[in-house]
Design a protein that fits this description.
0% strand; 80% helix; 18 helices; mainly alpha
Length: 526
């Protein structure tokens, strides 16, 4: 995972790419940017809530959360086109005129994105006029909710063209740059929301503050930064450009369908269980237990996905230029890294999650041990398959994606309707974990490993042994600390976590030795 990319222009990053920039540096930039993005996401969804409640009532806050959720769902309008474009950009790396073909395809896809924005923008305006959100969602007495909902959804729709530019950045080794730019927009957006809240106090003002920063990011990256960073986008003058035919444009949606199905399934596995438990379980306390416990499992899964995204871009590059040996090494080491990270986080959460849960809910919601253990262990088990999923997205395996992710959604829904009425939230947890293990890991993950690695089953055995060792040792260390340091309260919880981190850090300190790390890398079956 530390080799240096030295491929010739046209086969790798091209003259406009990072040249000989080290792979390790690109990965670290990408991981750090994604980590900051996750922190900003938590700030938006958790830490801004007290500020909103200082000015708004509970009804206004509920309306804002509905508006924010609607804006977040606009990402579905991409329809998998970003990953379709990424795969075409990667394929052009093995062509003689890499930059020219990339520029031509970029402009053609940009026209499709603009058409999507125009058509769906009209549909959104008509929908808000004919079915006002205030009436549909039950916020009749909430002022400006209809205009705020329109501003949020339409504004987020206008940001879709940034997906295309971000895809090009990812392929050309500039993944970290686009995420850092988006982080700046998110941070400025949060500051703008607080200013709008203090100055105007309306839903509409806060929605405009949030969306305006996202629009500025889109305009900057599409109109200024991308053409400056990749000059070939401005070459091959516009006068020689033949607009794409309707048949070609519609065909792009068909080729993007597998990626759309994969992304929608991932969204469904996070959001649909909450709706199913709410609909099928009558015990409202159990529903609250599920919703709160699901948050931490989703956070582990989301963190692992964020770690795999920069790896996916590098793996896609190696796949596109046919560098199988380098691809094999990176995939094997990346799989170990993602799995180890997930298992280490889960090992720390298992012993201390009950204490945190009690502090978080002020003891008002009882802790459900089997539910938490099932979701957390499931997050550790599924970690290796997340790298397989991201690599499949970056290596144009559309047929495999649509078969496996479509099947996973069906398996999850069938198991949910069978298990939730009998077991409650635990049934939903078992449905999610079983679909992950049976389909995403047992089918998608193993297929990708067999196609990529020379020793796929030895690799799986290595991952299993490592996962069991990490989770068991971390969990036992945590239980020992709880037994040796009795007490309760926030200070006690912080002390427990600090002792655990010190103990785990001491056990991991030999990894600071470069020679030992190289020996361990050599042990990873590839």
């Amino acid at each position: 995972m530390t080799d240096t990319q030295t491929d010739a222009p046209g086969k790798a990053d091209g003259r406009s790419g990072p040249g000989g920039a080290g792979r390790a540096r690109r990965l670290i930039h990408g991981w750090s940017a994604n980590l900051v993005q996750m922190v900003l996401g938590l700030t938006q969804q958790l830490l801004l809530i007290p500020a909103f409640l200082h000015v708004w009532s509970g009804d206004l806050l509920a309306a804002w959360l509905a508006i924010y959720a609607a804006g977040s769902l606009v990402v579905v309008a991409d329809s998998g086109l970003q990953l379709r474009a990424i795969n075409r950009f990667l394929a052009f790396k093995s062509c003689a005129d890499c930059d020219g073909r990339t520029a031509s395809f970029y402009r053609a896809m940009l026209r499709i994105y603009l058409a999507i924005v125009a058509v769906l923008g009209v549909v959104l305006c008509a929908a808000v006029y004919l079915a006002p959100p205030s009436a549909v969602l039950g916020f009749h007495a909430t002022p400006t909710i209809d205009s705020a909902m329109l501003v949020m959804t339409l504004g987020m729709l206008l940001t879709l063209p940034a997906n295309l530019a971000s895809g090009l950045y990812r392929v050309r080794g500039q993944y970290g740059r686009t995420v850092w730019l988006q982080n700046a927009a998110l941070l400025l957006g949060q500051i703008a929301q607080l200013a709008a809240l203090a100055t105007f106090g309306s839903l509409l003002a806060v929605a405009i503050a949030f969306v305006s920063m996202q629009l500025l990011f889109t305009i900057f990256i599409v109109a200024f930064d991308a053409p400056r960073l990749f000059p070939f986008l401005r070459r091959n003058g516009q006068s020689t450009f033949v607009p794409p035919s309707w048949r070609w444009s519609i065909g792009q949606f068909g080729r993007a369908l597998p990626f759309a199905v994969a992304n929608i399934t991932e969204l469904a596995l996070v959001n649909v269980p909450v709706l199913l438990v709410s609909a099928l379980v009558t015990d409202r306390v159990a529903v609250a237990q599920w919703g709160l416990t699901r948050v931490i499992a989703s956070l582990v899964r989301g963190l692992c996905l964020q770690v795999t995204l920069p790896l996916g871009a590098e793996l896609g590059h190696d796949h596109a230029i046919g560098d199988k040996e380098r691809l094999r090494r990176l995939y094997a080491q990346g799989s170990v890294f993602v799995t180890g990270l997930a298992c280490l986080i889960v090992a720390g959460l298992l012993p201390f999650w009950p204490d945190f849960f009690a502090l978080w809910t002020h003891g008002s919601i009882p802790y459900d041990g089997p539910l938490a253990v099932t979701l957390l262990l499931g997050s550790a088990v599924v970690a290796p398959s997340l790298l397989a999923l991201v690599f499949a997205n970056h290596s144009n395996r559309g047929e495999l994606l649509i078969r496996t992710k479509g099947l996973q959604l069906v398996v999850f829904l069938v198991l949910s309707f069978v298990l939730i009425p009998r077991l409650g939230p635990l049934g939903a947890a078992l449905a999610v974990v079983a679909s992950d293990i049976l389909v995403q890991f047992g089918l998608l993950g193993l297929v990708i490993m067999r196609q990529t690695l020379r020793q796929p089953f030895r690799h799986v055995a290595f991952l299993s042994l490592m996962a069991v060792a990490l989770v068991a040792s971390g969990w036992l260390i945590g239980l020992a600390i709880i037994g040796l340091v009795p007490g309760s309260g926030l200070v006690h919880f912080v002390v427990e976590c600090a002792i655990w981190l010190i103990a785990v850090g001491a056990l991991a300190s030999p990894l600071l030795n470069a020679t030992l790390r190289e020996r361990l890398r050599a042990l990873v079956p590839a």
